[in-house]
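INTERNAL TRANSFER SHEET
From: sequence group
To: structure group
Subject: DUF2388 domain-containing protein

Please process the attached sequence and return the structure record in the designated field. Keep the field labels unchanged so the import script can parse them.
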Amino acid sequence: MIRTRLLGAALLLALASTAHATSFIVTTDSLVGALKASSDATSDVTSSFRDNKIVRAARDDAASFVASNGDIRGVKLESAFAHIRQQLPTLQASDAQLAQAILAL
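Return from structure group:
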């Protein structure tokens, strides 16, 4: 009887550790994918708009936007967002990612 319980406990422990490792791998993969997407968006924006006057003029507004966690949205920044999204319609980037990319110019 004790042997059966020990065997059952060992089996449950083995299954639980496998499930935990699998969820860790899935979580890690999703985080790495999100970071890669953010990096790609930043790279696309900075290389395409380095010399663009509209985007460069929005730098101060982008700094305010990032510092306030998106609460402060200046007119120049909104114009830059619209311009970037018009030029790169397939770009999947949030406003925060775009503001950080503008600051990286």
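Handover comment: Residues 2-104 form one domain. The longest helix spans residues 2-48.
Transfer complete.
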